[in-house]
Backbone:
């Protein structure tokens, strides 16, 4: 489950219309959400609050051997007036990463109207204002800091700023203080990331003070260019997205070189057009008849690391709004090592307190009769077309989901189970990890159910167990 501060940062990205999917770092985000989840470690409590629309706080207390915790503060120039902050009101799917539906690329110019890129004040307004609203705001800026206790303390800080319609700057600082009796200066590192997203392609330029590491990431989307294609033409013709990208790193100090490349094919959400909304379920233009693309969303990825010889493929499928599957196969051409992982997530729908009248699917026929016969009884004022009602029904079910169960298993029979849900006004995350292990009291059981201590083949009859619970409350 995401921390409250991560949830606010996602709200900041949505508020500034920044597409997180149009990045090489998010190429395998769907499979990672379903397969690489972690289970809580022992007992951990989170208390968070959105004190004002611009300021948020969070406190964490955990028991992992010794009592530890953290204190976090966040400030944003972009107000979060419409962002739910109470734990009883936050949609669980916003906090629990699951099947990640890739969104259709959009041109940044369509989302923002900038009056001046170089000025620091009053240079953008939301697209809904048309750029003509008298109340303009500063460039969207976010400040976040987290102090981990007890000593030796670690400070993590983030500075995030939208500097143009297509560019975003991020500065991340990590500083660790030495032991109490040490007189050495705190160890600190700075990571600078400049992102440039045009919709058609994106580039990320990175620099880290740790070993003076330089990096670059790039992603290219095949298909129509959203900058030169109208919104209606683009949504009507593009039902899938093929993306390819690469990354490269180099450190002149340690002579470290790294690179990888990958490709992703993903279906896109069914387009919403006036014709499709008011067409009958049996009409050829209805989204229900677009075939497997709109009925069963899926994502395929292939990544390759040439220097290490690692090849990985993944396939993720959303069988229904409440059930998703994913699998991943990894292979190394140099050592002949392989990895196979499979997992799924199952969402539980809340019990319905009220029942809605069933739709007989004949509303389209009644509408035709009303067009040809003026004496035909008019439709109720609260009636809506059947496809539109089904679309709203699915969205309401997703928003109202109150718990999810995730399961993951690999080729060594290491199993992780994670349950996340809402109990009264508390958000609870509970998990367990099981697997064959050569258990050693010197190391203790594994933390989050990872396979670092697992032994392939299961030669030992012992099984390690890790159980943890995390409780969160926000106001």
Residues:
């Amino acid at each position: 489950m995401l921390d409250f501060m991560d949830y606010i940062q996602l709200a900041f990205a949505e508020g500034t219309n920044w597409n997180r999917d149009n990045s090489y770092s998010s190429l395998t985000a769907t499979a990672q959400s379903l397969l690489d989840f972690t289970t809580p470690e022992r007992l951990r409590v989170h208390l968070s609050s959105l004190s004002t629309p611009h300021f948020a706080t969070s406190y964490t207390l955990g028991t992992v051997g010794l009592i530890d915790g953290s204190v976090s503060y966040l400030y944003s120039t972009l107000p979060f007036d419409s962002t739910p902050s109470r734990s009883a009101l936050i949609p669980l799917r916003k906090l629990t990463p699951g099947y990640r539906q890739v969104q259709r690329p959009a041109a940044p110019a369509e989302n923002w109207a900038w009056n001046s890129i170089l000025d620091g004040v009053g240079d953008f307004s939301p697209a809904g204002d048309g750029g003509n609203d008298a109340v303009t705001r500063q460039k969207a800026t976010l400040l976040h800091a987290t102090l981990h206790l007890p000593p030796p303390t670690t400070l993590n800080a983030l500075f995030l700023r939208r500097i143009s319609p297509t560019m975003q700057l991020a500065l991340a600082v990590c500083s660790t203080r030495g032991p109490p009796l040490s007189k050495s200066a705190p160890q600190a590192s700075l990571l600078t990331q400049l992102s440039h997203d045009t919709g058609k392609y994106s580039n990320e330029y990175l620099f880290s003070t740790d070993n003076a590491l330089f990096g670059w990431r790039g992603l290219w989307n095949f298909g129509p260019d959203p900058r030169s294609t109208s919104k209606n033409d683009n949504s009507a013709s593009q039902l899938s997205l093929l993306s390819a990208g690469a990354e490269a790193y180099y450190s002149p100090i340690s002579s470290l070189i790294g690179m990888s490349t990958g490709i992703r094919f993903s279906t896109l959400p069914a387009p919403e057009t006036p014709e499709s909304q008011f067409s009958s379920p049996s009409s050829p233009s209805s989204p229900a008849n677009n075939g497997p693309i709109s009925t069963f969303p899926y994502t395929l990825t292939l990544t390759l690391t040439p220097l290490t010889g690692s090849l990985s493929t993944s396939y993720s499928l959303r069988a229904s709004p409440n059930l998703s599957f994913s699998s991943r196969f990894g292979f190394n051409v140099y050592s002949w090592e392989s990895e196979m992982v499979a997992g799924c997530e199952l969402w539980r729908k809340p019990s319905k307190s009220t029942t809605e009248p069933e739709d007989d699917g004949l509303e389209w026929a009644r509408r035709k009769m009303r067009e040809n016969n003026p004496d035909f009884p008019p439709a109720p004022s609260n009636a809506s077309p059947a496809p539109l009602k089904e679309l709203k029904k699915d969205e309401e079910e997703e928003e109202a989901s109150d718990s999810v169960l995730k399961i993951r298993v690999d080729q060594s029979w290491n199993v992780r189970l994670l349950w996340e849900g809402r109990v009264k006004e508390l958000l609870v995350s509970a998990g367990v990890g099981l697997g064959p292990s050569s258990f050693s009291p010197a190391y203790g059981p594994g933390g989050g159910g990872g396979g670092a201590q697992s032994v392939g083949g299961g030669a030992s009859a012992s099984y390690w167990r890790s159980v943890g619970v995390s409780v969160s409350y926000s106001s």
Summary: The chain has one domain: 4-107+140-351+364-376+406-439.
